[in-house]
Amino acid sequence: MNEIRVFSPATVSNVACGFDVLGFPLDSVGDEMVVRKTKAKGISISKIEGFDLPFDIYKNVASVSAMSLLEVAKPDFGFEIEIYKKIKPGSGIGSSGASASGSVYAINELLGRPFNKLELTEFAMKGEFIASKSEHADNIAPAIFGGFCLVKNLHPLNVLQLPTPTDLYAIILHPQIEIKTSESRKILPKMVPLSDVTKQLSDLGGLVHGLHTGNYNLIKSSLNDHIIEEYRSKLIPHFDIIKSKVLEAGALGCSISGSGPSIFALSKGNDLATEIELVFKSIYSKSNINFSTYISKISSSGVVTI
Ligand code: HSE
């Protein structure tokens, strides 16, 4: 095989109580990438469509991730990457994570799969780092592994795949404003009250148990963020009213997707997901901010060959 086309999913990271450690991929929103072998060694980017991103291989997340893989694989040929970007950078639904995951997944396939998913996550994290200036894998791991993923440890990397209850739907509101992860990390406190940490820990434990047992009531009572949301939500217009209306409509939970500005909600079933999307639309259509909404199941596969 000399060429491959992949779909690399958008992801929701943090998932309320799981700051930096929990995420899931969407199955209907994501980027496409084509990667092909070249005689020349190394990585090049031959096409970028959708958004204005750097062709400089040291600045583009996809090529930085790919180069970290090639440093270990050392093939005597190279790869050219075409990026068909659908996820807006700075959207909060894992735009850089999708680029980073797509390139390493594709190259691994073209090399005959020498690396496992954990190793691919580590390579992709090198690319994610240049975009976010921080080491976290809660977008990359779900993009590569599929399903809900808990990043149990970074060094050494350990990712736990959690079960996804079948009726779970994600609803996303993406206000078309840009929030850079690196900036939205700077506004977070260095120290937090112990009582908030205790609440966050019990909710994360409750959410993980709820996912394992398919207990939607437990999932619902656990989808809270006691630590991060109050700081970052100030950057997202109408966050508080959106959240209260979406919960009133019956959502299992509602919080910031990644570092924002996207907001996610989870619902049991597609009918409620459609109602929640209408709530998102009715509030944001009264504002002067352009926005998009998506309804998606949780992808069980993550990045795939298409
Ligand atoms: N966990 C990261 C953050 C995800 O919230 O900063 C952003 O990509």
Secondary-structure blueprint:
Elements: E1 3-13, E2 22-38, E3 42-49, H1 61-73, E4 78-84, H2 95-110, H3 117-132, H4 140-145, E5 148-154, E6 157-162, E7 168-175, H5 181-186, H6 194-213, H7 216-222, H8 229-232, H9 239-248, E8 253-256, E9 263-268, H10 270-284, E10 291-297, E11 304-305
Helix pairs in contact: 1-2, 1-3, 2-3, 6-7, 9-10
L-homoserine is lined by residues 13-14, 20, 132, 136, 138-139, 181, 185, 258-259.
CATH topology of the largest domain, by name, is: Ribosomal Protein S5, domain 2
Q: What is the ordering of alpha helices and beta strands?
A: EEEHEHHHEEEHHHHHEEHEE
What summary fits the major beta sheet? 7 strands, mixed
Instruction: Tell the overall outline.
Output: globular
The N- to C-terminal Cα distance equals: 14 Å
Share of β-strand residues = 25-35%
The tally of helices reads 10
- What is the mean predicted local confidence, pLDDT? 97
- Share of residues in helices: 25-40%
Strand segment tally: 11
CATH architecture classification of the largest domain: 2-Layer Sandwich
Low-confidence stretches: none
3D architecture notes:
The protein is an alpha+beta fold. It folds into two domains: 3-162 and 301-305, 2-Layer Sandwich (Ribosomal Protein S5, domain 2); 168-297, 2-Layer Sandwich (Alpha-Beta Plaits), CATH 3.30.70. Helices cover 37% and strands 27% of the residues. The strands form two sheets. Strands 1, 2, 3, 4, 5, 6 and 11 form a seven-stranded mixed β-sheet that branches. The chain has a four-stranded antiparallel β-sheet with strand order 8-9-7-10, with helices on both faces. A hairpin with a 2-residue loop joins strand 5 and strand 6. Helix 2 runs antiparallel to helix 3 and helix 6 packs antiparallel against helix 7. The protein is globular and about 60 Å long. The model has no long low-confidence stretch (mean pLDDT 97). Bound molecules: L-homoserine.
